[in-house]
Amino acid sequence: MLKRTEEKERLVGLDNAGSNRQGRWLVRGVSFEIKRGEIVTLIGPNGSGKSTSARMALGLVRPDEGLVTTRSDLRVGYVPQKMSIDRTMPLTVERLMTLTGSPSRKEVADALAETGIAHLAKAEVQHLSGGEFQRALLARAIARKPDLLVLDEPVQGVDYNGEIALYELIGEIRDRSGCGVLLISHDLHVVMAATDTVVCLNGHVCCTGTPEMVSQSAEYQRLFGVRGSGALAIYTHHHDHTHLPDGRVLHQDGSVTDSCHPDDGHHHGHDHQHGADCSCGHDHSRLVLPKTISKDANDA
Ligand SMILES: Nc1ncnc2c1ncn2[C@@H]1O[C@H](COP(=O)(O)OP(=O)(O)OP(=O)(O)O)[C@@H](O)[C@H]1O
User: Could you tell me the pTM of the whole model?
Assistant: First the structure.
């Protein structure tokens, strides 16, 4: 008898969902689902309805049309787009972890270790770099052991190498914990190919699919106006280095450098291609778009 492949558990599903405020549709016709172990990324220009769609998925906004179904007792870990912290108030990373929940000391320590900032447990939040702060917020979210991890613009205030390191970390967390991940991004510089599904929004779903499929769709290219040298490059490489929490790069030969370049002598067996915008060029399975796309998107 044939054994059916086991279906991954569906955590959240939106079916033609829409949200209306005072007669205006903020977004409508949104359909996607997130299963356990999957990464779904919502992309789109400012005001395109990414946060509204995510809020519908989380049950924070009730859809005015369509259907949203959520697994009962779904545990969500949320990394907000902004978090206002009184910079004059002393607040350690450890304390930040317990502001809105009550994880045990071990859960706090594990989450800080997993996000690579165990050494910053006693540090003041106001002294953290952009990348360290994002990791602290991520640690706070994963300490809850979520079924679904939601990250709204997780790479804000983070430089290019830090951005790649953060995306890699999110992928590792998914691999280790098996949680589902919903990412929201309008800075399209890096959308990791580890993303299973990209949903491209502009008040409605313009296109949806794998990063490769979406990048090639006419709707996507119309929306983001990919111009001139702004060609897309899909990277599929083998892993030969690791991005450290502080943005530096640990190479296979044990050396650590501030950044990573194909010709820096640390990489062997170049079996990959580089795009026009490649400042790193190795080992990531990701879709890279030029920085200018964010501006193009706003112009669109
Ligand atoms: N509660 C609300 N009441 C009225 N309008 C709203 C409300 N929330 C959002 N909007 C509007 O809905 C549209 C979509 O907003 P949303 O925050 O979902 O977009 P976004 O894609 O996440 O944008 P950004 O990238 O700027 O964060 C915007 O025009 C916004 O001004």
Answer: 0.75
Please tell me the distance between residue 26's alpha carbon and the centre of ligand 1 in angstroms.
Answer: 7
CA–centroid distance, residue 23 to ligand 1 (Å): 14
What is the DSSP track for 25-48? EEEEEEEEEEETT-EEEEE-STTS
pLDDT tens for 241-264 read 665 666 566 777 778 776 554 445
The residues that bridge with 79 in the sheet, in sequence order, are 151
CATH topology (fold) of 10-75+146-226 = Rossmann fold (3.40.50)
pLDDT per position as a tens digit, 169-189:
899 999 999 999 999 986 555
CA atoms of 93 and 145, how far apart (whole Å): 18
Which residue among 51, 64, 200 has the greatest number of ligand 1 atoms within 8 angstroms of its CB, and so is best to mutate? 51
CB contact set of 204 (below 8 Å; sequence gap of 6+): 27, 28, 29, 30, 49
Sheet holding 286-288, edge to edge: 190-192, 286-288, 233-235
Residue list, ligand 1 pocket, CB within 6 Å = 21, 26, 44, 46-52, 186
User: Coil, helix or strand for 111?
Assistant: helix
- What is the DSSP-derived secondary structure letter of residue 9? P
Helix (H) or strand (E) holding 215: helix 211-216
